[in-house]
Amino acid sequence: MAKVLMKGNEAVAKAAIEAGCKYFFGYPITPQNEIPEYMAREMPKVGGVFLQAESEVAAINMVYGAAGAGARVMTSSSSPGIALKQEGISYIAGAELPAVIVNMMRGGPGLGGIQPSQADYFMSTRGGGNGDYRHIVYAPATIQEAVDMTMEAFEVADYYRMPVMVVGDGMIGQMMEPVEFNPPAKRELQEKTWASVGTKGLRKPNVINSLYLEAQELEDHNIRLEKKYEEIIEKEARWEDYKIEDADIILVAYGTTARIAKNAAEDLRKEGIKAGVIRPMTLWPFPNKAFENLNCKALLTVEMSMGQMIEDVKTAVEFKLPVHFVGRVGGMIPEPVMIVDKAREIMGGVR
Amino acid sequence: MAKGKVYFDQDRCKGCELCTTACPVKIVVMDKTQINIKGYHPATVLEMDKCIGCANCATMCPDYVITVEREQ
Amino acid sequence: MAVVFKKTQGLTDVQTHYCPGCTHGIIHRLVGEVLEELGVLGDSIGVAPVGCSVLAYKYFNCDMQEAAHGRAPACATGIKRVHPDKVVFTYQGDGDLASIGMAEIVHAAARGEKITTIFVNNAIYGMTGGQMAPTTLVGQKATTSPYGRDAALVGFPIRVSEMLSTLDGAVYVERVTVNTAANVRKAKAAIKKAFQAQINGEGFTMVEVLSTCPTNWGLHPVEALKWLEDNMIPYYPLGNFKNVDGEAK
Q: Least CA distance to C103: which residue of chain A?
């Protein structure tokens, strides 16, 4: 298939439809409006349903209903709207429903700004809603990756029966890059015999629910969920590394920030500082294995936040290596020179 | 007057007495001689020969205690 | 003799947890009977609220989803959009529908979502122990209006049926009650009309059922029926507020 130049938001929407998503419920919020707008145009053409909900809260609950009814369904939003969805995401996780949630991150806290950010790392990976739960979080760095990860998200969501989030720093939504739409690796999926589709008088009613009033039942449920999460941690963590074997300093970054970090690593190498990059592609499960047995002297996380992923990096190296932070927020984009200066300072060679 | 008969699944009864308000011939009473498994005096009918099988009692019952039969 | 009244197949055998005399039991039974009589029980999907009837998913003998507080109409929208040929209903109390869920019910009605909402209005919050509801009457005491609802401080109760009937997407809106056997039968007829309108593909339908809460009103169940008649019916008049007959919207 020939590549086509597409805006990130639209590519993600098209990817969902290509993956068999027939139901989209969303609400306008900058900078992801191209997603619901694309869905509004294209869903009717494939016999799907686009519905603009009255709020992000309503949208995530429509997702809950549709997912519980057995459908492949998606919603999208940006940071403040994703915050609104946290209750619904917790319910979807608790009821073990498959769904895909796309977050094109913008600056916060509160209303924040409309420029790109990565400040929803905690909200995405710590579970912004109540209770013990996790969901897979994919962090694409290119539009192609955004397409691939969105398509795979539907497979993975169905396979594990869980919500799956795809988080793009706002640039992913707004950039244009050439993409192609290839089907993801198919997983062996079970028929959704648990879905609420009507009993036809042939079976006991199915109940989609996250309420367990008996304490032991709720504990058993949480233990079962935890086993699922352990399997996912074992199997689904994903990352990319770049020139880390001989690196003295390793930059850790995700999303488009990782592309900037790669440029900075190259600039550092030109100066004689051996730098490499580890790029998490899943934020949860965090790729702890990428950080085993590193030979470097220090790590430097680069984030468009005040420092959130850095905590996972420190945990991953078990606090045995110094981990530093550099970043910009508010929509200010980190530049290679800033990263290079910080790395140089850490390595002790200020010129 | 049609003849009717009502059956009370007495262990379902919560003693709310709504059925006693609905009976047009006023024969539904709470059986003070009995306590059911829930600890309530269950509803009952002592003068079944007066029952007209209107099912008003069953219509008012929130706990599906009552089954009603009627002569056709 | 022939059986003229027995428990409907529309409900499971699970004994409900509701208080003695709580009208939820009656209303559940009416919904179950209607779905059974319309022959749609196997094609029905219900959405339970948060409130006393949070466990409704144990009592209705059809596929059920438990929604977050107030979100049942959005959840039902998701289900109905996926399965437009099924009968989808929400069953909600006054806190769930008229407080936290007000946006969801208004917009489901405005969109003309082809779902049926059973709205149980007992002018108080039951499950959480008797707090004031958006439908609590002026002067009525609740645990968060211990001196009686003061309109000057917290305004006036909301008449949901009247409000929703102004929306073009709402095709059948009726307020009924269950304080007498005759009214119970009328309530059932309204519920049947509401579901039939959904089956005909007409639009959003709702039946508001004035109900009692003996426990939190502090009244014997029989006294509670009287309180409903004396206090609630004058403020929440019974009757039909919208009936767009037969036109598929």
A: A54
Q: What is the mean pLDDT of residues A316-339?
A: 96
What domains, with CATH codes, occur in chain A?
4-236 (3.40.50.970), 240-346 (3.40.50.920)
> How close is the nearest chain C Cα to the Cα of B33, in Å?
19
Q: Which pLDDT does position C247 carry in this prediction?
A: 46
Residue type, C245: D
Burial environment of residue A109 by CB neighbours within 10 A (0 to 12, 13 to 18, 19 or more): exposed
Pairing of strands A99-105, A163-169: parallel
Share of chain A above pLDDT 90, in %: 97
Chain C environment of B22 (Cβ under 8 Å): 180-181
- pLDDT at residue C246, as a whole number: 56
pLDDT digits (tens, 9 = 90+) for A110-136: 999 999 999 999 999 998 899 999 999
Q: Residue C24: its chain B contacts at CB < 8 A?
A: 62
* E-state strands within C142-217: 170-177, 204-210
Contact A211 C66 (CB under 8 A): yes
- Which of A 174-233 lie inside 8 A of C, CB atoms? 196-202, 205-211
Calculate what percentage of chain B has a pLDDT beyond 90: 96
Q: Confidence band (pLDDT; 50, 70, 90) for C210? A: very high
Domain extents in chain C: 24-243
Is the pLDDT confidence value at C109 over 70?
yes
H-helix or E-strand containing B58? helix B56-60
Sign, CA torsion A307/A311/A313/A317: positive
Q: How confident is the model over C45-58, as pLDDT tens digits?
A: 999 999 999 999 99
C58 CA to chain A: closest CA distance, Å?
Answer: 8
pTM of the predicted structure, to 2 decimals: 0.94
User: For C63, which of A87, A206, A211 is closest by C-beta distance?
Assistant: A206
Q: Which CATH number fits domain B4-70: 3.30.70.20, 3.60.150.10, 2.60.40.2470, 3.30.230.10?
A: 3.30.70.20
- Cβ-based neighbour number of residue C112 at 10 Å: 17
Q: Is the pLDDT of residue C245 over 80?
A: no
Average pLDDT, stretch A26-37? 96
- pLDDT score of A152 more than 50: yes
Identify the CATH homologous superfamily for domain C24-243: Thiamin diphosphate (ThDP)-binding fold, Pyr/PP domains (3.40.50.970)
Q: What is the DSSP letter of C226?
A: H
| pLDDT at B1 (0 to 100) | 64
pLDDT of residue A349: 55
SS3 labels along chain A: CCCEEEEHHHHHHHHHHHCCCCEEEECCCCCCCHHHHHHHHHCHHHCCEEEECCCHHHHHHHHHHHHHCCCCEEEEECHHHHHHCHHHHHHHHHCCCCEEEEEEEECCCCCCCCCECCCCHHHHHCCCCCCCCCCEEECCCCHHHHHHHHHHHHHHHHHHCCEEEEEEEHHHHHCEEEECCCCCCCCCCCCCCCCCCCCCCCCCCCEECCCCCCHHHHHHHHHHHHHHHHHHHHHHCCEEEECCCCCCEEEECCCHHHHHHHHHHHHHHHCCCCEEEEEECEEECCCHHHHCCCCCCEEEEEECCCCCHHHHHHHHCCCCCCEEEEECCCCCCCCHHHHHHHHHHHCCCCC
